[in-house]
Amino acid sequence: MLGWTAPLLLLVVGVVVGLSLGAVSLSFREVIDGLFTRDAGAAHTIVWDLRLPRVLIALLVGACLAASGALLQGVTRNPLADPHILGLTAGGGLAAAFSLRVWPDLPQHLVAPIAFGGAVAGAAMVYGMSWRGGVSPLRLALAGVAVASFLTAGTTMVLVTSTLRTQAALSWLAGGLFGRGWNDLEVMAPYAGIGLAGALLMSGRMNILSLGDDAAQSLGLALERSRLAVIGVAALLAGAAVSVAGLVAFVGLVTPHVARAVTGDDHRKLIPLSAILGASLVLYSDTLARTLEAPVEIPLGVITAAVGAPFLMYLIRSKT
Amino acid sequence: MKLEARELKVGYGGKFAVEARELVIAERSVTGLIGPNGAGKSTLLRVLSRALKPEHGVVLLDGQVLHRLPGKQVARKLAFVGHNVDGLLDLSVLELVQRGRFPHQSFLGGDPEEDKRSVGWAVEVMRLAELLQRPLRSLSHGELRRAWTAVALAQRPDVLLLDEPTAFLDISHQLELLVLLSKLTEHGVTVLMSMHDLTLTAQYCQEVIVVKDGHIAAHGSTQAVLTPELVKDVFGVAAEYREDPGSDRRILVPFIAQEARGPADLEETEAELSPH
Q: Which of A150, A122, A149 is nearest to A231 (CA)?
């Protein structure tokens, strides 16, 4: 039980801290007032209109990326898999970049679904490339790396050949939640909700799938159908995250490893714990991103990488 | 439970890797599947376990076409243990063996009592009681092999297929596992396993299926089939049965003909080496 109390506590503290820190710092009392009383004045506006939606988006983005990473690491049986490395988020990035290049006046609320579609298309490319009468975990991982490099190259190409205005519109690609509000949350919530529920429903099968093909086959699991379903859900989750937060690296890679240190390879615990830890990681990172060098925002992806990468190195050295 | 194949042809890309006109696995006994490398033993096991679809013909499990049955339904009657066993998963032995209950569990879970009984039985048969809480990473290869076999047993199969169960095991672990597998027939389980060691095959299998160049070269009781002539013909090495001084059994000993040394030769060599 101790394995769950600490992460949940971390999460709650993160929410309070995230709501109180910013250009105007609020006390704990003001945060509570701002949340629950309408006539709290400025505190209400700051907490309710500005910080709360952003905090909630950060939580969802982190939960989605981490759950997606846990699914992908299980299905590829590869500890290096994550939605970033396997081309899922790269597909979303390219789709968004390309449509903004072609149509610079694209309204923001359309960028999200386009990025989402790109992520799903990226996943489909990876899946299609690794299909040869069935997909093997190794081919899946290798095809993912190839597709990711290819799509990222495409995004860079679009960025360097586009106007300053487009580039500005695409700044979210570097990963960030600047200016995100309730309507962004409304756009991503359904995808994130379905994806997270799907990941939890999939956890029993993931336990069987992660035993390897021979054992999973012997236990009667429909291998190809299960793999397709898992990749579909992972794409849904990655798409939801990339559509509001751009390319946020390392969350999907690192978080499942941290969770695994607590739960072992039991996906019924691993997936929810990954989601909780991922939510915390992105929330704290985003709070840092907007307060560390205020009023300048550091890209969220930079913070998650700066926090995540050393932690991964630590895990590698301590576990293997 | 009867496992049989009829007019079976299995292939990769138009070429038939294995053919078997009629194959009936002897029930409640241990059958050894032998043959040179690449003869098609693994392919045959995979078709019989439902992992691979035949291009022609059918595999029948208890009279029903295996490849048309739902996976979980098959998995409650038939289990397969591949020859690679993973020791890197971050699981305890108990957690691993419990996963063998998957085919008996629906979305809402299964019958906890029955799950417990079956896991307990698998653990007992594979002598894992003292290792239950140990992480897989800490197991020896022999223990790991027993743990993965227990996963298959927790399925409560009537038919157990194993691909080279003794591969990479030292001799004591090989013998231990074969003794444990032999005991399964007392519980009504039909065992079919591919083997490389002919001596052990002769000792522990009541039946043998001999695969050569993708077809069944011989099939029947070990005594009748596994003769020195057949070993010579299929494997290209000489072999003979020798009396086991400790029992009234005979032991099959394969050897390379040119280097063959009978007991007389050995005495001669010893005499030459001896200073007296």
A: A122
A68 touches chain B (CB under 8 A): no
CB-count exposure of residue A302 (10 Å: 0-12, 13-18, 19+): middle
Q: Distance, in angstroms, between B195 CA and closest chain A CA?
A: 18
- pTM, whole model, 2 decimals? 0.88
Contact B75 A260 (CB under 8 A): no
Task: Give chain B's contact residues with A (Cβ, < 8 Å).
Answer: 49-51, 70-76, 79-82, 84, 86, 89-92, 95-96, 99-100, 102-103, 105, 107, 148, 151-152, 155, 163
| Each residue's pLDDT tens digit, B144-176 | 999 999 999 999 999 999 999 998 888 998 999
Residue type, B187: H
Out of B84, B92, B152, closest to residue A218 by CB: B152
Name the DSSP class of A298: P
* Nearest CA-CA distance, residue B1 and chain A, Å: 17
Q: How far apart are CA B180 and CA B121, in angstroms?
A: 13
Q: Is the ipTM of this complex over 0.95?
A: no
At A95 the three-state DSSP class reads helix
Q: Pick the residue from chain A with its C-alpha nearest to B71.
A: A220
